Known about the structure:
The complex is a heterodimer.
Chain A: E1 11-14, E2 24-30, E3 35-36, E4 39-40, E5 46-52, E6 64-68, E7 74-75, E8 80-81, E9 83-86, E10 123-129, E11 133-140, H1 141-144, H2 147-152, E12 160-167, H3 168-174, H4 178-183, E13 185-190, E14 205-210, E15 219-227, H5 254-262, H6 264-270, H7 277-280, H8 284-287, E16 301-314, H9 320-325, E17 328-331, E18 349-354, E19 360-365, E20 369-370, E21 390-391, E22 398-399, H10 401-414, H11 417-446, H12 460-475, H13 484-489, H14 495-502, H15 507-513, H16 538-542, H17 545-565
Parallel strand pairs in A: 7-16, 19-22
Antiparallel strand pairs in A: 1-13, 2-5, 3-4, 6-9, 9-14, 10-15, 11-12, 12-16, 13-14, 15-16, 18-19, 21-22
Helix pairs in contact in A: 5-6, 14-15
Chain B: H1 8-17, H2 33-43, H3 50-53, E1 64-70, H4 72-83, H5 90-110, H6 114-118, H7 124-133, E2 144-150, H8 152-156, E3 161-165, H9 178-183, E4 186-194, E5 197-203, E6 208-212, E7 220-221, E8 223-225, E9 228-232, E10 242-243, E11 250-251, E12 253-256, H10 268-278, H11 290-296, E13 303-307, H12 335-345
Helix pairs in contact in B: 2-5
Amino acid sequence: MSDNGPPPGNMYLYDNITPPLLDGSYRFNVATDTKIDGTDQNLPGATNYFNVEGPRFTLSPALVAGVFPPRNGHGSFQENLPHIALSRRTLPWERALDPQGLIGVPTRGQGDPPPPVGPAPWVALLLFEEGEYTILQNQPLESVVPPDVYQRLGSPANINCDAVQTTLPVLQAVMPSVEELTVLAHVRQVNKDDRELSAGTSDGWFSVVMSNRVPAANAKFCACLVSLEERSDVIAKDPPQDFHLVINAGPIDHGVAAARVAQPAALAARTPSSFGRAELAHFPGLLSGVPVREPFPFLRTVTLVLLYSWKFECIGPGSFRDLMQGLDVAMFGTVKNPGHPPVTDTGHIAISLGDRAGIEEKALYRSPLAPFQLTRDSLGPYHSADQCRRATPETGAEDVTYACAFEVGRLVAAADARLAQELMRWRREAYRQSARGDTLNAVSTAIPVVQALDVHTPVVPVVAASATERVLKGRGPAADPYGVNSINQVIGLNPAAVQDAFQLGSQAEAAAILGANPGALGASVSAPAATPRPATTIDAVATDTAALQNLSTARDRLIANTAQKLGGKA
Amino acid sequence: MRAAWIQSKEALRLRMIRPEQIAPGEPEAEMPPYMESLLAHLRLLVSVPFEYLVPDSRLLPDDSIRFFYLDRSWTDRLVDGAIAVGKIGTREQAHHQAHAPAVDQQLDVTERIVRKIQMRSGPFPDLKKTNDKDPSSNGPAQVITGFLLRSAAVSGWPAMDVRAYKTDLPERLDPSSADAQAAQLRTLRLERLSPSVLIALFEGIPQLVIIEEPHHAVQFGVQPAFGGFNIDQRHADGTQILDGSPPNQVTRPLFVPVRQANARVLSIASLRRALFARQNADNMPRETGGASLAVEVLNPPWRQRFEGTIDHAGGGGTSPGFLSSISIAVRVTQPEIRVALQSALQSKVQP
């Protein structure tokens, strides 16, 4: 089953939906089977009990999603099978009808269908005519069910329930057999998109239990949803005999045939002997199957646990179709008896109201449901009811329609404390936002920002960027960003001063001394001319006595200087 | 003197630590969810006393249906009145004046999810988010129409299906078909006001309104026959098996025996045996259990059609929508009855 319901206007039918666990008491044992190094290391076992509980002897009316025919309804229901829709889809299958199999397996003849799929429900919808039943309220369970059934139910103490009492022949005639019970219940899933909302919300699933009896016209009936749990004493494994018309029962005069056509059922029930001897065998319950010790079987009463019941009457038109066809269809403002109440062309009616002075006066009012299309008033919003009062031009009468609407809205809202709070919150938030907006406006006037400020976007980065930019623009260019000019003013670093002090030939020379190496500053410098060196040999050098003389003189001077430094000794 | 609710220093700090002023995309007139939901409900007259809707009980007599156009100005005043709560000064008035267009616009969109809220299909913020993004819900406000129904059917048949269509779709109408889906008007509200009064609101002007018997309460029916009852044999999808060619098709009856002991008690076992013998023909359901039996004894839910037709009241000619004099076209869903009618009347019965 998928969660997607059927498309609009369709429904799905299921044979049954069974719960994972039937209602009842359960025991669960916990045991471990662990071996460590060959020895048992089992934890102590535990035994616990739990119950799965559901409706058993009473049914909450909240679980009833709908009944047909309607409760206390009057109508022509004589062609419809009563049924009840329960809002819990598993309800009819939450208990076992006959867990011990006391009813027995239905006999299966030639051409019989296979047994229905799924378990039999534990509830059945039985229809009784007025006079066939008695409803007993708040009976102890012991007095409702026979002792053996009570025992099989687990002898629950202090249970009171409602019950329906009837006679055995009536019950036997109505009670479905076990297989009939199964097919009389099913589950439905409907589309809930276009449904009128009822008090309870539903998931679109319903379990439906049908009755097998068709109500007769002009009679009162009571439909009873009964519990049949363990009631193997009243459920037959095979359905009772069908009614067969015997066509060749000998000469029948026309009067009888006509009567039969009109009311064959009544004829059969009331005058069985008129069908002749062959038909008598079809009434074994009345003639042969009765134990001698109970001469009055129709006086034997049977009581069943009653879960839910409703009455209806089969009379007159009253089906959905009849009701719908009988509707008076018109636009709003149409009245059956024109002039009562007088409705104006505009859809207004006159109402009397007391004005501020306490004087009764007539005013016009029109409900929001208008018989024709109206233009939407664009002069909103209105702030008080008086603002919405109008005078009609034709008669001068006051039109309080919209003033009424205003007051209804005000009263509905005032009755809702939470709404008043939310309104305050809404306003406060709006005021806060407008305060923010004002702040932002003030900021953007003071600081011309690069982009418009918006309450939704971060403001700080925009304002910070704009402010920084603005500050930078306002400062102007720096005079001597690296202090070069100041350094030039220092006297010892001025090439002109240096040239003057050291009497250098040119200022460029002084600059060179100060380190103003054009190469270091990136200027291209031509390579200095290489000194010409003539090729010579060691012998040529040795023969240069003059140079040798110079060298030895210099050596002697160096030695003399050194000796002098060391204290006058050579 | 009242202390300021926030100090400027603190305000500045908050301004600095918050990455943004207001979450992006949050419109300035954003209403608190509860308020928005309640006002949207008010727009559809939820919680408006019944006396204001029907000021005189004679305007809605027993067993009547009254169609109407919803007066948008009325509901706007209702909302104005609700917002007027706590309006103590000019500041609140100025605020309302400034925000009213945005509020109106938002409510025009939000009123389309009121039914979903009522059906509890999800929390309001989620529904609103989906709805606000849905282009089909974002159009301008449409005309709202609807009806009030006072009938015993409302209490007797709870949860009936109501649909409105902008075109007059012919019968047999399958509400799940693409045509029908495209023509269906959005149901804005469908609710019982009292045990016997139902209100329905639709977005747009319908040409056809159908009311169907509730589907979970689809009845089971039989037709009386000689010595028992008849049912119509049905396909597995619930439609009747028809013999013959249109328009003279007839249903295929199946005799349902009754019990000997009580002639009003159907012999379900015999019926099942008879259905089992036919289960392989004509796409009939396999006789497995309750569902297949239920399909066969089904009475399809009655569908009542209300159609916009020619205005017989004045000399108005054909109407663009439904007019004051709406004539009820009795549609017969069962073709054999229509055939019988046609032959009986010997005149044109509108199909």
